[in-house]
Structures are given as C-alpha cells and as structure tokens.
TrEMBL record:
Name of the top EC class for this enzyme: hydrolase
Gene3D superfamilies given in the database record: Ureohydrolase domain (3.40.800.10)
Name listed for the protein in its UniProt record: Guanidinopropionase
The UniProt record lists the keyword Metal-binding: yes
Family note: Belongs to the arginase family. Agmatinase subfamily.
Keywords annotated in UniProt: Hydrolase, Metal-binding
Species the sequence originates in: Caballeronia udeis
Pfam families named among the record's database cross-references: Arginase
Family annotation (NCBIfam families): agmatinase
SUPFAM superfamilies the record matches: Arginase/deacetylase
Alphabetized PANTHER family for the sequence: ARGINASE/AGMATINASE, GUANIDINO ACID HYDROLASE, MITOCHONDRIAL
Length: 312
C-alpha cells in the first residue's frame, strides 16, 4: 500500500500552506485512507465561544509534528495515505441543527467510502453529526476523555448543544453506552442529570479522583475491557486536561489530566478497533501562548498513530 506524500514535510516548517501535520491537501476521498478535517463551529457552546478558531490554530501548531513516533518508532505516514480535506463548509452557520446537517453531509461520503476520519473542532456538539454520518450497522463503542459527560438533555431550548452529543447518540442507536468509558470527569454542576444519565444508561464513568487513585495503567485496562474488540470511536475534549496545559478552552475545570498522563493513556489503547476520532474545544482566544493548540496537535498525532495501526 502506498504511503502519504511527504514532500511538504520536507519544507521548512515555517513555509508552505498550513495543513494538519503538513500532509497533502486532498479532496479526493479515493486517494486517502485517513481523512483529516476541520470543523470550525462553536454554535453549540453553552458558555464561552471561540472554538470556531480551533482548527486553524491546530493546523498552525501541527507544523511542529514529525513523522516517526519516538516510543514505538511507528510512522503512520508510511503505512497509509493521510490527507487534509479542509474544513466543513457551512451553508446556514447561525442555525445549530442545520449546521449539524452540514457536518453530517460533509462526512457521509468519507465513511460511505470506508475511510477513517480524524477531526479537529469546533465544540463538542460536532461529534453527534459525525456519528450520524458514520451510520454504523450497530452502535459503536467510545473512549471519551473529558471533564464533562456531555450527556445532558437540553439547554435553553436546544437538545443539540455541546453538553448533549452522547445522549443524542445513544438515543439514536449510534453509540452503545455499555461499550463507552468516560475518563477525567470532574467539576461541580448545577444538576446531576448528566452524571446520572451516563451511569444509568450503562456508561463507565471514571471521575478524576478514581483516575488519580488507581493510576493510568489500571484505567487503560478498564477502558480496554469496556470497549472490547468492537468498533470504537475516540473523542478527546481538551478540557479533560488540566487548564495549566490547555487554558484555551471554553469550559475549563481545574484538577485534570496532565499531558504525560494523557499521552500514556492514549498509547495504552493501541490495537483497539478504531473507526474514527476527534479533538475538540480548542478556543485560541483564551490562550495567547498557543500552547493549547500545540497540545491538541500533538494529541491528534498520537490518535493518528492509533488509527493508522490497522493499515500495517
């Protein structure tokens, strides 16, 4: 199998048109095995906006990405064709549900062609229309790293905010709650309905206190046990990390994962039956340093390595 055209990676990192990890810009799905795409949308936020700028800054900071993983010596660009398909084009940006339809339409041909998509958000509401586009024959499992369960019902008249995607996905038969693990959950809430829904529906919820008490290794074992060998999606909200590392996000919660813990967690999930993933909630206006986008770009590379393993 041919690998990725890496000619752009040979350029000085400050030159060339910015794409995710400096892969080719490509809109021909047939030329790709793994599609990288941006979803510049934050119309589903319940507090601070700004995640619409996330994909652009993640692209910029991903120019720092190199090809060969320093631990595994794995090069995802050697084993499969990776390309940046650009951003979801929005036709009705100020209408939440119609914007979700735009996201679904963008990703439908990707999944219909049997490709894998790794997306950069955007707020977490984007994951629900990505699930809709995936249209799995049976509900998928999920590893979800986040400070919040995102299983609330409605907020100010909408059931499709960034606090609700996984409740909607379960209701639509797209996500199997019994094969879902949520890691890093924390922070006071005005209602316990999100926590209750996750637990009562059968999701395995790992609050940050349990993560700290048991350690990364035990939680990796737990995650692998929960999702098993079935098709599994990986969704990572950068507020799952402590805001010391990712201050540029709309709903920061202190006491979160470190970058080292997150890297170890992801690497421990190698070999699962991955069908896609996303990194969401990067809001550059809240982080002038750009570090949040750098963390997100690095985690996207780690996730890409997981997804590319199936092509070895």
């Amino acid at each position: 199998m041919p690998g990725t055209d890496r000619s752009q990676m040979a350029l000085p990192r400050f030159s060339g048109i910015p794409t995710f990890m400096r892969v080719p810009y490509c809109t021909d799905i047939n030329e790709l095995d793994i599609v990288l795409a941006g979803v510049p949308f934050d119309g589903g936020v319940t507090a601070r906006p700004g995640a619409r700028f996330g994909p652009r800054e993640i692209r910029n900071m991903s120019s720092m990405t190199r090809a060969i993983h320093h631990v595994t010596r794995f090069n995802p660009f050697d084993v499969c064709r990776v390309g940046d398909m650009g951003d979801v084009p929005f036709t009705d940006l100020y209408h939440l549900e119609r914007s979700h339809e735009d996201i679904r339409r963008f990703f439908e041909p990707v999944f219909a062609a049997g490709k894998i998509a790794l997306s950069a958000g955007g707020d977490h509401s984007i994951t629900y229309p990505i699930f809709q586009a995936m249209a799995p024959k049976r509900p998928v499992g999920m590893v979800h790293i986040d400070a919040h369960t995102d299983t609330w019902d409605s907020f100010k008249g909408s059931k499709f905010t960034h606090g609700a995607p996984f409740r909607r996905a379960v209701e639509a038969g797209l996500l199997d709650p019994r094969r879902t693990i949520q890691i890093g959950i924390r922070g006071a809430q005005n209602s316990d309905e999100g926590w209750r829904y996750s637990l009562e529906s059968g999701m395995r919820v790992v609050f940050i206190e349990e993560f700290e008490a048991r350690g990364v290794g035990a939680i990796i074992d737990e995650a692998r046990k929960v999702v098993g060998d079935g098709p599994t999606y990986l969704s990572l909200d950068v507020d799952g990390l402590d805001p010391v590392y990712t201050p540029g996000t709309g709903t920061p919660e202190i006491g979160g994962l470190t970058t080292r813990e997150t890297l170890a967690l992801l690497r421990g999930l190698d070999g699962l039956n991955w069908v896609g993933g996303d990194v969401v909630e990067v809001s550059p206006p809240y982080d002038p340093s750009g570090n949040t986008a750098l963390v997100a770009a690095t985690l996207m590379y780690e996730i890409l390595c997981l997804l590319a393993r199936r092509f070895e």
